[in-house]
């Protein structure tokens, strides 16, 4: 089979090599799928660089989320061959290959009405949104949600989940095209952080109160500014650091303004709360059936285009999700 392999760490477009490799075999609690779709995520870039929380042994095939048909199953797995599934890939056999390995407790069966590309794009970013906004932040109807990087994969999912929860959603994005994408997703207010002061805009939008929940996958200066935009009893959800820098949170400021800083490490739920993740998938399927969520897929690419697409993502040139697909 053909698979992108990383044999040394570095930028994806420098270290990825498309190779012919043997098809993987499933271990206990795992399935092998014939990959029909694999969605790109920012952590795919970090894992190639060796900068992600989890570092698979070299060589490995990246790709966190994929969808396809089960071709074989390991011990203890009840899913039958031929079933359509989507879920989390288990490295070193990631989704950027013709076959991938998924954990049986980290996948869901795909209803016929959901295309494989859509299903693959609903795994990581929408799990992150539901866990971050519902479980960690306790977002409630009527509250104001501020989503940073709203036009990206993580942000676009959070906008949809926030609206489905009944929140008023404010989104930030860089540039007119991305701001337009946030508005098209339904954001009540979209702010170009390159030209406008989002702190002032949020305060004006909330009559001085600030945002009840701030969803931050960027970090750095964005996190520092967010502390000025958070409401009394607000919650800032730390999702990631795509901005490249990790800031220190001054606890005296959190005390004085009476807000919470909440961390989210999604992968811990896959191993420590698998039953909860199954509930998350059921919620996502319900929201999709209701028309409340639908991944913003901006590009469908061939397997050979993965390194170029990851490079564009690293440069923040992309909107929504990019999906490798055969559809």
UniProtKB/TrEMBL annotation:
<dbReference type="InterPro" id="IPR013154">
    <property type="entry name" value="ADH-like_N"/>
</dbReference>
<protein>
    <submittedName>
        <fullName>NADPH:quinone oxidoreductase family protein</fullName>
    </submittedName>
</protein>
<dbReference type="InterPro" id="IPR020843">
    <property type="entry name" value="ER"/>
</dbReference>
<dbReference type="InterPro" id="IPR051397">
    <property type="entry name" value="Zn-ADH-like_protein"/>
</dbReference>
<dbReference type="Pfam" id="PF08240">
    <property type="entry name" value="ADH_N"/>
</dbReference>
<dbReference type="InterPro" id="IPR013149">
    <property type="entry name" value="ADH-like_C"/>
</dbReference>
<dbReference type="GO" id="GO:0016491">
    <property type="term" value="F:oxidoreductase activity"/>
</dbReference>
<dbReference type="InterPro" id="IPR036291">
    <property type="entry name" value="NAD(P)-bd_dom_sf"/>
</dbReference>
<feature type="domain" description="Enoyl reductase (ER)">
    <location>
        <begin position="10"/>
        <end position="324"/>
    </location>
</feature>
<feature type="region of interest" description="Disordered">
    <location>
        <begin position="1"/>
        <end position="27"/>
    </location>
</feature>
<dbReference type="InterPro" id="IPR011032">
    <property type="entry name" value="GroES-like_sf"/>
</dbReference>
<dbReference type="Pfam" id="PF00107">
    <property type="entry name" value="ADH_zinc_N"/>
</dbReference>
């Amino acid at each position: 089979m053909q698979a992108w392999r990383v044999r040394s760490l570095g930028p994806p477009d420098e270290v990825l090599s498309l190779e012919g490799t043997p098809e993987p075999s499933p271990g206990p609690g795992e399935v092998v799928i014939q990959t029909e779709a694999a969605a790109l995520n920012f952590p795919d870039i970090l894992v190639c660089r060796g900068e992600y929380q989890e570092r698979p042994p070299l060589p490995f095939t990246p790709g966190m989320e994929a969808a396809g048909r089960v071709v074989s199953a390991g011990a203890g797995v009840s899913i039958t061959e031929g079933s359509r599934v989507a879920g989390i890939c288990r490295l070193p056999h990631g989704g950027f290959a013709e076959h991938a390995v998924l954990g049986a407790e980290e996948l869901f069966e795909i209803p016929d009405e959901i295309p494989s590309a859509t299903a693959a794009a609903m795994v990581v970013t929408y799990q992150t949104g539901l866990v971050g906004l519902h479980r960690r932040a306790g977002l409630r109807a009527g509250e104001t949600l501020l989503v940073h990087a709203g036009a990206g994969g993580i942000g676009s999912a959070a906008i949809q989940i926030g609206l489905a929860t009944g929140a008023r959603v404010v989104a930030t994005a860089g540039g007119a095209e991305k701001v337009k994408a946030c508005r098209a997703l339904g954001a009540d207010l979209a702010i170009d952080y390159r030209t406008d002061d989002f702190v002032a805009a949020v305060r004006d939008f909330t009559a001085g109160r600030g945002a009840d929940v701030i969803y931050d996958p960027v970090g750095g200066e964005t996190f520092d500014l967010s502390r000025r935009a958070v409401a009394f009893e607000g919650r800032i959800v730390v999702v990631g650091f795509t901005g490249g820098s990790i800031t220190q949170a001054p606890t005296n400021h959190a005390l004085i303004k009476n807000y919470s800083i909440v961390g989210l490490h999604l992968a811990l739920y896959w191993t420590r709360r698998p039953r909860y993740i199954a509930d998350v998938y059921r919620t996502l399927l319900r929201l999709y059936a209701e028309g409340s969520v639908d991944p913003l897929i901006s590009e469908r690419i061939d397997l050979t285009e993965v390194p170029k697409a990851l490079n564009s993502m690293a440069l923040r040139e992309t909107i929504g999700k990019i999906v490798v697909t055969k559809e």
